[in-house]
């Protein structure tokens, strides 16, 4: 058996960042920026009014002062002239502030009669002008790698970047294996169950920014497994679920080896999720996860997610575990690293009593995996321990 850290190091050697592609801005959200981009212009490109009102000289602002209105500046239509002493230009939000003016009097503070305004309110000192380049200037960098958020997309648009260099999305084939499995919505026979973790992993992979592909369920025969592996051949990463132990019907390793898998390792000292295999198969990386629903999902968080991050060019620097305080005493851990389903609330972590690796109800209620290192001694309520948020 190897440790979780050794397993991760092996797995990370199997994958490398995918090449860059350019996508239209409209398709960039959720994608990973592959190289830094630079703003092509200043924003705003001119000093702009942030209010509707009158552009005039700050030094002339005082109650009862009067100004002659000499023109108008609206968004998209600047006033071409110059504001002189005793003059004002009617201005609207987003319009360039005319030359000679350095203050926008909000319209609520003015009363107008024909082309003369009088300051009737109390304008204060805020000039209501957004300076040129106040948001960003030409050359401002958005650094990579970075998973683009909707706000990033808006910023890129504002920078006038219409095509965005992003990492190609990894295609991840997900293969359930087992004679007992049927798809959700089907009519299971008396000895059958519904394939579940394949859907959970599909959702996880999509959230990570990959392109998951759910393959038809492979049966526990060599022929069926071969067919499934052939369907998966185009994928960047092949994920098999189940059939990875040493039972008579656990044929995944044998089938994968016949299909060219160069196997890297087999068993990992962790709970849940001991049987695990991985290697290269042709142009793909392959990882075989245990079948138990919770084991597969936990392995998804611990192994699959960082592999996808590497494929996406995000590196494998995981944020350090978060810390929470135990709400109850915990017994000593055995020799395997244990990822315990738990709830973290307000800095306190409570582990579920039943940690059986088949219980999806428990996983669904959990928001954290409390990480117990191998041979961790008994812990007392109040001790601080690391956890992985899920
Ligand atoms: P195996 O590793 O194939 O022996 O599977 C271990 C356990 O996980 C068995 O109880 C299987 O029925 C179950 N199992 C395997 N694959 C899946 C799946 N895709 N969805 C739900 N349960 C599964
Ligand atoms: Mg099986």
Question: How would the blueprint of this fold be written?
Answer:
Layout: H1 4-13, E1 20-24, E2 32-33, E3 37-38, E4 48-49, E5 53-56, E6 66-73, E7 87-91, E8 103-106, E9 110-113, E10 116-119, E11 129-130, E12 141-142, E13 146-147, H2 150-158, E14 163-167, E15 171-176, E16 181-182, E17 193-194, H3 197-208, E18 211-214, H4 222-231, E19 237-241, H5 252-258, E20 262-267, E21 270-271, E22 275-281, E23 284-289, H6 293-311, E24 322-326, E25 337-345, E26 348-351, H7 360-365, E27 368-372, E28 384-389
Helix pairs in contact: 1-6, 3-6, 4-5
What would your notes on this structure say?
The longest helix is centred in the C-terminal third of the chain and has 19 residues. The chain is elongated. The chain has seven helices and 28 strands. It is of the alpha/beta class. The chain has a six-stranded mixed sheet with strand order 8-5-7-6-10-9, with no helix packed on it. A six-stranded mixed sheet has the order 18-15-19-23-22-20, sandwiched between helices. α1 packs across α6. The structure holds adenosine monophosphate (AMP) and magnesium ion. The site of magnesium ion (MG) has 6 residues, from loops.
């Amino acid at each position: 058996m190897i440790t979780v850290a050794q397993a991760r190091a092996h797995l990370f050697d199997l994958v490398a960042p995918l090449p860059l592609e350019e996508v239209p801005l409209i398709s960039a959200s959720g994608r990973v920026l592959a190289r830094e981009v630079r703003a092509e212009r200043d924003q705003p490109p001119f000093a702009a009014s942030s209010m509707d009102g009158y552009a005039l000289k700050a030094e002339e602002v005082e109650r009862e002062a009067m100004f002659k209105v000499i023109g108008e500046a609206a968004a998209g239509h600047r006033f071409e002239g110059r504001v002189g002493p005793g003059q004002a230009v009617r201005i609207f939000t987003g319009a360039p502030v005319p030359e000679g003016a350095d203050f926008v009097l909000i319209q609520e503070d003015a009363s107008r009669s024909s082309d003369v305004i009088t300051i009737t309110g109390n304008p204060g000192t805020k000039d209501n002008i957004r300076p040129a380049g106040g948001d960003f200037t030409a050359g401002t960098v958005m650094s990579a790698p970075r998973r683009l958020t909707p706000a990033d997309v808006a910023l890129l648009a504002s920078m006038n970047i219409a095509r965005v260099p992003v990492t190609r999305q990894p295609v991840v084939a997900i293969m359930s294996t087992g004679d007992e499995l049927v798809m959700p919505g089907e009519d299971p026979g008396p000895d059958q169950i519904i394939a579940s973790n394949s859907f959970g992993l599909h959702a996880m992979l999509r959230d990570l920014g990959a392109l998951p592909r759910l393959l038809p369920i492979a049966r526990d025969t060599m022929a069926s497994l071969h067919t499934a592996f052939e369907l998966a051949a185009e994928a960047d990463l092949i994920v098999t679920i189940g059939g990875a132990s040493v039972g008579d019907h656990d044929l995944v390793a044998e089938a994968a080896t016949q299909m060219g898998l160069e196997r890297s390792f087999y068993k990992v000292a962790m709970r849940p999720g001991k049987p695990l295999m991985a290697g290269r198969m042709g142009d793909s990386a392959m990882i075989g996860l245990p079948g138990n629903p919770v084991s597969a999902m936990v392995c998804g968080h611990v192994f699959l997610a960082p592999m996808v991050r590497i494929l996406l060019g995000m590196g494998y620097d995981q944020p350090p575990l978060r810390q929470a305080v135990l709400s109850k005493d915990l017994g000593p851990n055995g020799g395997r690293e244990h990822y315990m389903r738990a709830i973290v609330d307000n800095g306190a972590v409570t582990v579920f009593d039943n940690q059986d690796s088949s219980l999806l109800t428990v996983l669904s209620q959990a928001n954290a995996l409390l990480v117990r290192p191998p041979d961790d001694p008994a812990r007392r309520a109040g001790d601080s321990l690391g956890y992985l948020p899920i």
